[in-house]
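Morning!

This is the sequence you dropped in the shared folder:
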Amino acid sequence: MNKYRYAAIAIFLIEVYIATYVHDTIIRPYIGDLLAAILVYCTVKSFINTPVLKTAIYVLLFCYLIEISQYFHLVDHLGMRQSRLAHVLLGSYFTWVDMLCYTLGMLIVLAVEMLNPTTQPAL
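The structure's back. Tokens below.
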């Protein structure tokens, strides 16, 4: 198992803990979104050996796409309003702050990757 898979598993467990037990106004809405972007990045990197910067950009665009789908109420248009899983995966309402959290998550990823001497070149 590579370092990304371990990180993805650890972040996933943290996300489950946050979703289950943390009901505040900072960690759950903001740190949870920041970690979600990092989780997607680590998951992708655990299966596919892709360049750091390219992966970070694609993950960020994916996160933005999910957030934009919330603006257009995709869950409702798909007829999944009652599905808790759909609301967890796709979300239910758009905020610019979430976009910022995803961006910060990817900036953290890039900073950590640049500090890691074993990381492949960014491009």
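Headline: The chain has six helices and no strands.

More detail when I'm at my desk.
O.
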